[in-house]
Amino acid sequence: MSGSYQPIQPIPSALNGFAQPATTLSFDSVSDILWAGLNSGTIVAYIGTQGIRGPSFRVGGDLGVKRLLAGDNYVHGAGNSNEGLGSWTKGGVNKWFLRPSADILTFSNAPPSSTGLAVSLISLEIGFVSLMTGTMIRQVQTSSLLTQLELSHSALISGSSDGYIRIHDPRTGMARSGGAENLAKAHPRSLQGLQVAGNLIFTIGMGERQGRPIPDPLVKTYDIRTMRALPPIPFSAGPSFIHAVPKRSSTLVVASAEGLINVVDAINSSAMNEFYQLDTSSYLTASAISPNAAYLAFADSGGIIHLMSQAESDAPFNGFEGQPAPMADLPAPMPRVDWKDSTPLNTIGMPYFDSQLLSAWPATKQSKVASYTGPQRIPPQILSSMKYNDQVAYATLPKELRGRRNMSVPAPRKGGARFRSDKVIPVPKMYRKVEIEYSKFGVEDFDFGFYNKTDFSGLETHILNSYTNSMVQVLHYISPVRHLAKAHIATDCSREHCLLCELGFTFRMLEDARGTNCQASNFCRTVRVLAQAVNAIEIIDYGREGPEVNYAQKIQAFHRFLLDSLSVEINNPPNPTIFPSDVSSSASIPSPISQLFGIDGHNIIKCSHCKASRENSYLTHTLDMLYPLRSSDNPSPKFSDLLSYSLFRPNIHKATCQHCRRFTTFTSIRSIASEKLPPYLAINVSIHNDDAFSFWRGGTSFLSSQIPVKGQVNGIDDPEEIVYEVRSIVGKIVGKDQKSHLVAIIKVPQAEEAGASSPWYLFNDFVVRNISAEEALVFQAQWKIPAILYLERVDVRDQIQLDTLRNSLDSTILSRDASVSINRDPALIKHQLLNSDEMPTPGTLVSIDAEFVLMQQEETEFRSDGTKKVLRPARMSLARVSVLRGSGPHGGLPFIDDHIHTSEIIVDYLTEFSGIRFGDLDPIHSRYTLTPSKLVYKKLRYLVDCGCIFIGHGLSKDFRIINIFVPPEQVIDTVDLYFIKSRQRRLSLRFLVWYVLGEHIQTDTHDSIEDARSALRLYNAYQQFEEQGVFDQKLEEIYREGRQVVSL
To answer: Which end of the chain, N or C, is less surrounded by CB atoms within 10 Å?
Structure first.
């Protein structure tokens, strides 16, 4: 088996052709079967990973199956209809059925050595049932309703509705004797799950908040021998299902109702957790784990059973070739009798068989093809043009998808032979996909400067959704967009997740970096959050896409989503006039993004029968290219011809005319005057096939730097001609392995102003190279495919008005209390806001320290030689930041001490290193000053803009996680002050404070105020040593003492 689980083909849980959600699941211990209890009260067997339908039978009633358990030669089940508990053979024949006087809540498992099982009755009793006869042997009174029962090797463990777990003697059902503890309060409300593994008990249940039940975010752990509580397992998503992993007594599978799965070792905290997210749009209803832990099964409310496999091949569910799959126990048909008047009645007997029937086909010879492969995915060309009317989606079938019907689509041919006659054009090195390699020092040790020797910064790639780097770079070098984004962060934007705010912060960082690599981590996180909010899952990067992902289509979908989102976020009437228009009322001025990119025109729709016409207006921010069939009149059209065709192509459709009441043909013609064309055209190139790409392979004669365009009014060309200039291109690069990535080719304005020989630059993530104009505009090679094109209107370049935009942050941001904590404790407020006469100026000293929490575990790959390769580093998030006055009468007094509110799921609070505990970042429970992350970022941004000098210890990593660039001349890092380059070892803050200041810090946990104040005092000590001329001598003593401490 491999080290991690991978999703495989799901199984639809259907009955009689209709999908039904499974309410309980159980893997067979001796056969290759997954048993599922459906919502209709039926138990169904699914054979093998292909989900071949096996026997099925009902448990009684029409409600769902409450619980089922598959053993060596039986299947136990009980339904929500409270008809009782039954036992069936695997072929479906009932062995016995128990109908007690009180309803059954649940029943326990049945270990191989046991002769009975325990049931919980609604009458506050435990009943013990014989496995052979199904009779009730004994009933014992209990103190509360038991919702969970588990039989271990030595005890019966129960979980009750009042949150207690109890240990019972399996022989009597009474509480465990012998002086040992037999109960513990695990959860405030009812237990929802109970698992026993070795000497450990794991429970999940309901908590309580303001008198209402909520899922308890902790998985509780107890020692079965002493009932002593062990450290719980945090799971902030809310655990709904738990399963102990077989043969790994301390490992647990925890799953939330939304499909987040965590495989965690409860004892070994250093073991790496495994996280998975199921691809489901509904909630989970049941789960199960196979006997050898090679398979996980999860059922959702949509009638799909999701499978995750650890097996390297199509291995059986039980891990070995066990008993053959059972066939349904059906009565044999009666033999045909030639009935006559003289036929004696005793000739009609009961049939029997003394040999195995041919229909009992062995499982090894059954077809491996799944009976249901699921519906085909909707092509992206259709999704991109889809419209909605009364919750019904419709779209025109593109020409490239039309063809003969009822014909199977041939699968792509596998890589065949390679011949010397083949012309293989290699991808130039600077266009190839670049990956960040991680050393033992992490990403900080990677030499980004080797890949970029220009003054223009690149963006890193180890972040989810970093495929958007190319679009960030394109918008950064469009001057009006850059000014709008920078002005937007100076406003009081109330959105928690705002793409325009994050773009503004990223643009400021790229400006300040001047060639140093940056990362758009906050922007990428916001893309994921907003895309999930509107169910735009096609633009979300899950980090596991293979060669089949078409990043050209992905970035085009994101391009449309981005411009539409930016237009909404910045739309705050009355909007400023960025581009002059004939709009009379200030309230009717569109958003600045619409003024720059909006294609505002009219559609003239004309009926072909009665010639009646009507007009409607439309506004779109992106233009999708259309490609006509080649004609003899114009065999080699230029880009300007295709652009006009895409803008003004008549659209023909059929509908019912409101005038003549006939179902007839309508012709729709777009009408846009030349002067109404926008200052910028944002174009999705939309190359979906080789025919479309063939237009672009015409060399410099196809796409030139200057593109003339004429508008059309009522189908007639406008005599005025508008000239657009190509400003940037997003291209898809396809390597030899057919994996694609995106690059941006940009005409940089700063390079134009500096009079460079070629202002065109290639931005391949963190690789930045200067290229020629010919290389930028030519797409003759098969590996270079355009995806997005930006054109700038030349004649209105100087008419765009940006003078009214405000670019500076409000200084009062440092003197306002913006805490969102409802229950803040005044005694825990350790900072004092700045007065008006304390506002920072260039050169003001401030001391800073930050604490972080873990949002995503590190993704690693273990190789066969035992070495480890980091595929994606852990994702951290700012949890607390403290900024202290660096000088003056209040030197060392904090003026910022903010805990950061986040709505994302926190994987690990890292309390030992951060001092942050569960609830500290929750507005309801936090007792500290809790501030939105965007506001904290603005505070830090203001301090950087003011020219403050930041003092701290290890600030480069802190600023990197915060995602802010601080110029090196504004940073004084004590880790660099107290450092000898020849020693190659940097000293910790705790050791420096102990030796230099003679104090002990970080004894229990880290405190950001304490750490920032210690760094400030170390800097003051450094200045004193320099004034005395003894710093070098003191530094040697520190290193000497450090070696002695390490050797001890």
So the answer is: C
Determine whether the annotation assigns residue 265 to a binding site: no
Residue 142's CB: how many other CB atoms inside 10 A? Answer: 19
Percent above pLDDT 90 for the chain: 32
Please state at what angle helix 479-488 crosses helix 499-513, rounded to 10 degrees: 110
Identify the pLDDT of residue 434: 84
Residue 61, pLDDT > 90, answer no
Query: Among all chains, which residue has been given the structure tokens 């370049």?
Result: 797
* Position 960 pLDDT exceeds 70: yes
Q: Is 329 annotated as a binding residue?
A: no
Contact 164, 181 (CB under 8 A): no
Instruction: Tell me: pLDDT of 415 over 50.
Output: no
Say if residues 495 and 488 touch (Cβ distance below 8 Å): no
User: For residue 416, what pLDDT band results from cuts at 50, 70 and 90?
Assistant: very low
Rounded CA-CA distance 693/537 in Å is 27
Full strand arrangement of the beta sheet holding 284-289: 6-12, 304-309, 295-300, 284-289
Q: How many CB atoms lie within 10 A of CB 889?
A: 6
Neighbours of 784 (CB within 10 A): 21
- Residue 43's nearest CA partner among 280, 244, 286, 283 is 286
Would you list the DSSP string of 895-944? Answer: EEEEEEE--SPPSB--HHHH---TTTT-TTT--S-EEEHHHHHHHHHHHH
Please give the structure tokens belonging to residue 915: 């001092």
Secondary structure class of 237 (helix, strand, coil): coil
443 within 8 A of 747, measured Cβ to Cβ: no
Q: How far apart are CA 983 and CA 1036, in angstroms?
A: 10
Q: Over 70: is that where the pLDDT of 423 sits?
A: no
Q: What is the DSSP string of 307-362?
A: EEE--SSS--TTSS--SPPP----PPPPPP----TT--GGG------SS--TT---
User: 825 CB contacts (<8 Å, ≥6 apart)?
Assistant: 927, 928
Q: Are 250 and 266 in contact (CB under 8 A)?
A: yes
**What is the mean predicted confidence (pLDDT) over 924-931?**
92
> What's the rounded Cα separation, in Å, for the pair 17 and 19?
7
Residue given tokens 């959704």 in the structure block: 465
Burial degree of 1034 (CB within 10 A; 0-12, 13-18, 19+)? middle
Query: Residue 253 and residue 296: Cα distance in Å, rounded?
Result: 9
Average pLDDT over residues 686-694: 87
> Which element (helix H / strand E) includes 771?
none
- Distance (Å, whole) CA 365 – CA 342: 47
Q: Can you tell me the mean pLDDT for 754-777?
A: 91
Average pLDDT on 10-22 reads 82
How many whole angstroms separate alpha carbon 527 and alpha carbon 467? 11
The tokens for 424 are: 């293989």
Query: How far apart are the C-alpha atoms of 314 and 207, rounded to whole Å?
Result: 41
pLDDT of amino acid 410:
52
Q: Left (φ > 0), alpha (ψ -120 to 50) or beta: where does 886 sit?
A: alpha
How many degrees, rounded to 5, is the angle at CA 534 between CA 380 and CA 962?
105
Between the ranges 107-111, 401-405, 926-930, where is the mean pLDDT highest?
A: 926-930
Q: Supply 521's token pair.
A: 């981590």
| Closest-CA residue to 37 (of 61, 15, 66, 60) | 66
Per-residue confidence (pLDDT) for residue 1047, from 0 to 100: 46
Give the model confidence (pLDDT) of 123-156 as tens digits: 888 999 988 888 888 888 888 889 999 988 778 8
Cα–Cα distances (Å) from 599 to 23, 491, 565, 706, 856, in that order, read 52, 27, 16, 20, 41
Q: In 3-state terms, what secondary structure has residue 1002?
A: coil
Alpha-carbon gap, residue 865 to 882, rounded angstroms: 44
Write the secondary structure of 528-561 as one string of H (helix), E (strand) and C (coil). HHHHHHCCCHHHCCCCCCCCCCCHHHHHHHHHHH
Q: Which of 148, 25, 125 is nearest to 75 (CA)?
A: 25
Is 422 one of the annotated binding-site residues? no
